[in-house]
Amino acid sequence: MYSKKISNAVIKRLPRYHRYLGELLENQVTRISSKELGDRMGVTASQIRQDLNNFGGFGQQGYGYKVEYLYNEISQLLGLGKKYNVIVVGAGNLGQALANYLDFEKSGFVIKALFDVNPRLVGLFVRGIEVMDMDNIKVFVKNNNIDIAMLTLPKANASQIAVELVSYGIKGIWNFAPVNLEISDDSVVVENVHLFESLITLAYIIKNEEDPHTDDMYSMEIQ
Q: What does CATH list as the number for 8-77?
C-alpha cells in the first residue's frame, strides 16, 4: 500500500496509461520505452517516469517497460481487479447510452438497474437491464450491494438525490448533472463530469485555430 500522497493530476493520467497500454497489448507489443510511450500519448518521457515513480517505477533502465506487467500493475492501482455494482439514476437518453456501453462491464462496472420517475420509462429494459421506479431505489441499493451511482439528472434534483444515495450506502457518484456535487461524507467519492464545458472548450480551440490573432487582441485589451 502506498502511503505517499499522489497528486490528482497524476491519478487522472493513470486511465490514459491504462488505455494506451491496452492498445499496445492488442497490437502484441511486449516492451516499450518511456519515450515511445510518451510519443504515443503526447507527453514527455520525463513526465511518464515521474508519474510512474510515484508507484515504484516499474521500468528498467536501458530496457523500458514490460507492457503486460505495467498494464496489470496500473489495473490494480485503478481498482480494476474487482467488480463494482452500479446503478444509473435517470433513464433518459444519456442514462440509456451509459447502460448500453459494453466496455463498462468488461472493466468490472456491472450496471444492475436504471431508475427514473417517468412512468413511460419505468418497466422498460435497456440491454436487458430494467428501468425501475425511484420509489424502489433505497431497498435496491441496500439489497444489491451497490457501489456506484451514475447520475444523469436535471440540475434541480441532483444534489438531493446524491444526499439520499449516500445515506443508502453508495460509495461513489459519477455525476453528469450540470452542477458540482459537494458531499460532506469524506468516505464517498464524487466525480463531476461537465459535458457542456468540454464542448465549449472544444469550440474555443476551434475558434482560435481559425483566428490565431484572437489571443493577441485579448492581451492588448487587458494591458
A: 1.10.10.10
> Is 27 annotated in some ligand binding site?
no
Task: Tell me if 153 is assigned to a ligand binding site.
Answer: no
Whether 91 has a binding-site annotation, put simply, is yes
Q: Is 93 marked as binding a ligand?
A: yes
End-to-end CA distance of the chain: 50
Given a contact cutoff of 8 angstroms between Cβ atoms, the answer to whether 45 and 34 are in contact is: yes
The answer to whether the annotation marks 90 as part of a ligand binding site is yes
Q: Is 92 annotated as a binding residue?
A: yes
Architecture of domain 84-192: 3-Layer(aba) Sandwich (3.40)
Q: What is the pLDDT of residues 5-43, one digit of tens each?
A: 778 888 888 989 999 999 999 999 999 998 999 998 888
Winning range, highest mean pLDDT, from 126-140, 173-187, 193-207: 126-140
